[in-house]
Amino acid sequence: MTKIYVAGHSGMVGSAIVRLLQKRKQKGEPIELLTRTHAELDLTEQSAVRDFFSEAKPDVVILAAAKAGGIHANNTYPADFIYLNLMMECNVVHQAWMAGVKRLLFLGSSCIYPKFAPQPMPEDSLLTGTLEPTNEPYGIAKIAGIKLCESYNRQYGASHGIDYRSVMPTNLYGPNDNFHPENSHVIPALIRRFHEAVTTGAKEVVIWGSGKPYREFLHVDDMAEASLFVLDLPKQTYEANTQPMLSHINVGTGQEVSIAQLAESIAQVAGFAGKIVFDPSKPDGTPRKLMDVSRLKQMGWSARIGLKDGLEDAYRWYQQANSVRSA
């Protein structure tokens, strides 16, 4: 029986990974899932994390817990973003090693790459330039997570047999996303805005920025599949596609869309027929953020959920969640 601890199981990515692991369990894989709510385990508290690992003794750790948000949240809570993420990463990775955990998967973010990284962004563009100022604290915390995994591998890999890996997803969306009116990412923010516009009969929707930046989006169910794919790769295969000082793997679709095009697509999914207005006085963020996913493709994994189908799925989930809250 393999005991797998999913940190952040109630979040968008963590819940998708849990759903996929539960399907594997139902098919007969000898898996025991370990989860803890924030109320049960505060990952920023070192002693609490130490006690959990000592008692639960997981075999595998998937670190999907994070403090995350969109441009507004990153601008408003920079101290929260860097402190909370650093504390969670340090505590989980170190206590996993202390407890003898051999396999760990850390989930990062495309925010680790420089603002003007080559497009599409290859893994080796890490630390080659300055980050986008609006999400620099979050990006630095995620870079630290990668380097934690690399450093523990370098120091303890041979002597203790540990294998700590990192995957860097592009912008994610889907069920269990954060639809907060101010602190959410672009897709859930637009889904909520267009849904409310249809509900109230509004004639126009105002969107932050110029609409010109390009972004790549990956459905969270694809991310869950990619995460377990990378986690399960034979060590030789993983190491053949990485380097000791460059051990992370990009996860994305390899396709991008402008924010303006995205807004039009979401408006169509939500049934909004009014006017879309862009506010260029608001920040755009990074001009482009397209991931180079050639390494992951060479290893045998590619995204399967197209943006149109993914947006429809995300909107259905939002409608269902709204109806439950309203009941």
Give a structural overview.
The chain has 327 residues and is of the alpha/beta class. It has a single domain (2-176, 216-253, 290-305), classed as 3-Layer(aba) Sandwich (Rossmann fold). 46% of the residues lie in helices and 16% in strands. The protein has 11 helices and 13 strands. The chain has helices at residues 12-26, 46-56, 71-76, 78-98, 136-160, 186-200, 220-232, 235-240, 259-270, 294-299, 307-326, and strands at 2-7, 31-34, 60-63, 103-107, 163-169, 171-173, 204-208, 214-215, 217-219, 248-251, 257-258, 275-279, 288-289. The strands form 4 sheets. The protein has a 6-stranded parallel beta sheet, sandwiched between helices. Strands 11-8-13 form a 3-stranded mixed beta sheet. α1 packs across α7 (220-232), α4 (78-98) runs parallel beside α5 and α6 packs across α11. The longest helix has 25 residues, at 136-160.
Strands in their spatial order, largest beta sheet: 2-1-3-4-5-10
CATH topology: Rossmann fold
What is the residue-averaged pLDDT? Answer: 93
Helices and strands, in N-to-C order? Answer: EHEHEHHEHEEHEEEHHEEHEEHH
So what's the overall shape? globular
CATH homologous superfamily title: NAD(P)-binding Rossmann-like Domain
Distance between the terminal alpha carbons, to the nearest Å? 41 Å
- Radius of gyration, in Å, reads 20 Å
Chain oligomer state: single chain
The DSSP helix count reads 11
Low-confidence stretches: none
Question: What structural class do helix, strand and pairing data support?
Answer: alpha/beta
Highest-level CATH class:
Alpha Beta
The tally of domains stands at 1
Beta fraction: 15-25%
Count of strand segments: 13
| CATH architecture level-2 label | 3-Layer(aba) Sandwich
Largest sheet: 6 strands, parallel
Q: Classify the helix fraction into a percent range.
A: 40-55%
